[in-house]
């Protein structure tokens, strides 16, 4: 999930941004965010990291970064306001780690290794440091896009709300793999799955707040696939396009989030450079409610602030983080004047500590 905000309270928070380093990006950045008015302070470097600390996860006073490169590592940090202190670095047992998530107990970190198509679980010590992986899964499968789907590509790791399962969208296999998770040992065992149409390329997913439904963004088709969660399996309900009717340009679905009130779903289009808005029905089906420009180029990730009032978009190729106000009645988005330059920003998380 794009937003991890355990323990976040009050109006003042710190937003940490992961980046692809080089070409002006130096590591992980931080800004102070005020949920009373949506203001965002100028970004500062929280810590210099040259290893593509792209996707971030946070739990309490600790932050974790997937270092998206061939070496395959994850770094643990302690948080001090808007600054980070490196604790340790461990191998992810795969190449190209692109997503991480902390389990509901705060004792385990999951890693999706995109290039190798592997999934691992790592123990989190009480001091926030990481141990070596304790469970390793090699996914398998391919699909019809010979360039993008010649083999498995684990793209995200999402613990189920009851913490009994781990869901992993695999872009190469056109599957969402489901693993049973043992919170005592960290062990992962294959339990179920959900299939997408050939060539869809599942990237990210999100649960509805009542845990009855799962929504999966397909990167290659820019579609959202609706599923009923019948643990450990996903039962297909239907699909809806993320793009306006008649659009024929490049398409690349990216991020998806369900609003905490359970009424709205948002998804980002990188080719169309927009945020698609949907109303969530009582039957779990999505109804398109329009799109709005993302305020920049290539919205790879976005996050809803813990108050539910604002949505922040990380536009990778324009190097901007833009703040949108959420209408609580309609779910519509209004771009505010609040935005900050963060080169190659690709993920956002909130901390209850502030600068």
Q: Which consecutive residue ranges, at least 5 long each, have pLDDT under 50? A: 1-9
Strand fraction:
over 45%
Q: In CATH terms, what is the architecture?
A: 7 Propeller
How would you state the average pLDDT, rounded? 95
CATH class: Mainly Beta
Instruction: Estimate percent helicity.
Output: under 10%
User: Would you tell me the structural class of the helices and strands?
Assistant: mainly beta
Q: What oligomeric state do the depicted chains represent?
A: single chain
So how many helices?
A: 0
Q: State the distance separating the first and last CA atoms.
A: 24 Å
Number of domains: 1
- What letter string, H or E per element, gives the SSE order? EEEEEEEEEEEEEEEEEEEEEEEEEEEEE
Rg of Cα set: 18 Å
The global form is: globular
The CATH homologous superfamily? YVTN repeat-like/Quinoprotein amine dehydrogenase
Kindly identify the CATH topology: Methylamine Dehydrogenase, Chain H
Q: Tell me about the biggest sheet?
A: 5 strands, antiparallel
Number of strands: 29
């Amino acid at each position: 999930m794009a937003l991890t905000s355990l323990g976040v309270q009050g109006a003042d928070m710190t937003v940490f941004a992961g980046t692809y380093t080089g070409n002006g990006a130096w590591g992980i950045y931080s800004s102070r965010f005020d949920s009373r008015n949506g203001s965002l302070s100028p970004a500062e470097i929280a810590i210099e990291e040259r290893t593509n600390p792209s996707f971030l996860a946070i739990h309490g006073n600790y932050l974790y970064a997937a270092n998206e490169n061939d070496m395959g590592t994850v770094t643990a940090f302690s948080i001090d306001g808007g600054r980070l202190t490196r604790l340790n670095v461990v191998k992810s047992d795969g190449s190209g780690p692109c997503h991480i998530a902390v389990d509901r107990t705060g004792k385990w970190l999951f890693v999706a290794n995109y290039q190798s198509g592997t999934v691992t679980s790592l123990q989190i010590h009480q001091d926030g440091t990481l141990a070596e992986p304790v469970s390793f899964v090699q996914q398998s499968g391919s699909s019809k896009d010979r360039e993008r789907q010649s083999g498995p590509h684990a793209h995200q790791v999402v613990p189920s709300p009851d913490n009994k399962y781990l869901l992993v969208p695999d872009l190469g296999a056109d599957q969402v793999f489901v693993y049973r998770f043992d919170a005592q040992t960290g062990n992962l065992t294959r339990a179920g799955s959900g299939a997408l149409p050939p060539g869809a390329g599942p990237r990210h997913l999100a649960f509805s707040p009542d845990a009855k439904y799962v929504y999966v963004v397909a990167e290659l088709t820019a579609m959202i696939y609706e599923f009923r969660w019948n643990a450990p399996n996903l039962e297909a309900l239907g699909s809806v396009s993320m793009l306006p009717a008649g659009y024929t340009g490049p398409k690349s679905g990216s991020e998806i989030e369900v609003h905490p009130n359970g009424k709205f779903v948002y998804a980002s289009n990188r080719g169309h450079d927009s945020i698609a808005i949907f109303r969530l029905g009582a039957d779990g089906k999505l109804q398109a409610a329009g799109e709005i420009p993302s305020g920049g180029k290539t919205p790879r990730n976005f996050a809803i602030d813990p108050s539910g009032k604002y949505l922040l978009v990380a536009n990778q190729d324009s190097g901007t983080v833009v703040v949108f106000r959420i209408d609580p009645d309609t779910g519509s988005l209004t771009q505010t004047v609040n935005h900050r330059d963060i080169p190659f920003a690709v993920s956002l998380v909130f901390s209850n500590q502030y600068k």
